[in-house]
Amino acid sequence: MSTTEAKLEDVSQRLAGQTVVVIGGSSGIGLQTARLVRRLGADLILAAREDDRLREVGRELDAPVSGFDALEPGRVERFFEELESPIDHVLLTGPGPYYASLAELDFERAARDVDAHLFLPLRVARAAAGRARAGGTLIFMIGAGARRVAPGLGLTPAFTAGMPALARTMALELAPVRVNVIAAGFVDTPLSAHVLGGQLDARRRQLRETLPIGRVVEPEDIAALAAHLMANTAITGATYDIDGGEQLL
Q1: Contact 50/72 with Cβ under 8 angstroms?
Q2: Which tens digits make up the pLDDT trace of 31-65?
């Protein structure tokens, strides 16, 4: 048995029979995480905006689905209140970034961005903590790339800097439920394709040529890290970078 197979077997033993909630589970990182933990024996509850894709994924993974807009007032709280049994882990993937210079910043859109990347994780944490078993974990996603200062990043660097600090505070307040953050660089997902449009192939080529790992980070890479954070009950208040070594360049 290879080292990778042994690690997956160990994670499988820890996740088998546990319940994982994936908010944003109909595509990209959320979907691949849902597929992995299902394969490792976990039960799933999937949430995303209501559409045919969500229902299709629910059928694929034999998992109940809940379609709603997480930014609708009170909706996240109602989702967790309506769960019929305790849960173990929650992954919140979140929407894409809103980039704009200060001169071009749309404050209404920026306020929604703050809601999505700051207040939504807080609402999820407070609502989920009351339903999560001891030793479970809440996992939130941020972008690692915004640690570099550049014009036009908008509020994204503030979220990148702020969420790890919030996670450390929540890890103490919500213990023994754990709270962790995954800071991802470019990941080859439908969301990335939407953001980059016609520049996607050039970005992939650039990363393959420059990243120390020699390839683009895939959703499966993030899923493997998320499953590890769920299974390893010694990790809390931590932020894990996964960018293929881009920050080293």
Answers
A1: no
A2: 999 999 999 999 999 999 878 899 999 999 999 99
249 belongs to a structural domain: no
SS (H, E, C) 111-139: HHHHHHHHHHHHHHHHHHHCCEEEEEEEE
Structural domain count of the chain: 1
Which amino acid is located at 107 in the chain? F
Reading the block at residue 157, the tokens are 């660097």
DSSP notation for 180-222: EEEEE--B-SHHHHHHHGGGHHHHHHHHHHHSTTSS-B-HHHH
The beta strands (E) that lie in the chain are given as: 19-23, 43-48, 65-67, 87-92, 132-143, 178-184, 239-242
Instruction: Decide: 73 and 127 in contact? Cβ < 8 Å.
Output: no
Q: What is the span of the domain harbouring residue 79?
A: 3-242
Of all residues in the chain, the percent with pLDDT exceeding 70 is 96
* Separation of alpha carbons 187 and 97, rounded Å: 13
Tell me if 122 sits within 8 A of 174, measured CB to CB: no
Kindly state the tokens that stand for 166. 């919030």
CATH number, residue 197: 3.40.50.720
Residue 67 pairs in a beta bridge with: 48
**Residue 247 belongs to a domain:** no
**Cis preceding-peptide flag for 64 (omega within 30 of 0):** no
How would you classify the pairing of strands 87-92 and 65-67?
unpaired
